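ok trying this again, last paste got cut off
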Amino acid sequence: MDWQTSEDTVPSAPVTEADARLLLGRPPATGAWRDGDPVGDRRFAAFGAFDTEGGERLPAFRIAYETWGELSAERDNAILLLHALTGDSHARGPAGPGHPTAGWWGEVVGPGAAIDTDRWFVIAPNLLGGCQGSTGPASIAPDGTEWGPRFPYLTVRDQVAASVRLADTLRIGRWAAVIGGSMGGMHALEWAITHPDRVDRLAVIAAPPVNTADQIALNSAQLEAIRIDPRFAGGDYYDAGDGNGPTRGLALARRMALLNYRSPTELNQRFQRSWQSGVSPLGHGGRFAVESYLDFHGNKFTRRFDANSYIALVEAMNSHDVGRGRGGVEDALARVAARTLVLGIDSDRLFPIDGQHRIAAGIRDTLDGDRAAVITSDFGHDGFLIETPVVAAHLRRLLD
């Protein structure tokens, strides 16, 4: 199942004919994990009613999560690991029944790794609103049908509040560390601001203090790509047969996102102006190799994700502003009491490095003073998933 390795965790590469053949079948209307599917390594925690910041209510909800290592008798060695937008709880382990992709940080988490599971008890939840086991739009509502477009609007703070409920259920009063990259970094930062007494160490990787107008604009184009797909049907598509769901819109949104996750340097070096085949793209119906790359990974993505969930999670990202209602960004960052690693990537055009520098300048106890540590990489935003030896070295500085 190596075709299911996430494109986020490897350098870009031309699409082969063998790759293309793997996606010949019709994609399902949703790539969400559903009750009755293989559980894989997931565990589940169920909760009662949940009220959102916006005044809406889930009558009950569930969080799917995975764990590695052993919790100490003192319950003081737990690390919360938070995934990016299209990640899930499967941070470590192979693809297989129940898990459409291999673990997204398998080289960072494990025995003897930077996040050493011989020492730490690691918990990775699927965020509320996600589509890989936690309650989200593809979940069944009390009326017996999917929530779909009725699913409540969530903020990052709502999602953190849900993960607080998980921590309380697991009787973890204080995290030894909270670690997250990209959207997970937003959650990690929010955890440390909202609950400074419950976070000992903090790692914020390739994440901003606020989602800017530029980032919201990029996100809005992706969401519109999904919504204008006729087969999106206003979000009520779960009864559609294979090939009749909003996969074209979701695939287009993914292609747009990939352009922000990778850097111009990588795309130019990997693909240059090469053709996908011997057929010329200059008026003869052929394609440039980079077009096929984006198309392939967009189509692959639809087999493991849900369009409504993508909308819910992107809208939650748009809510991200640690200074909202707290007197501004700097006042909010001053609340963080954890020993903190702030890490950015010099080629990141999604969340540029100035955002990480602002976070570092506002937190009083950081590893590198008032500037973020910077990874030099050609891979852009996805460098935090690809440059694992460098990321691991920085995490060792925090944890050791």
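PB: full thing came through this time. The radius of gyration is 20 Å.
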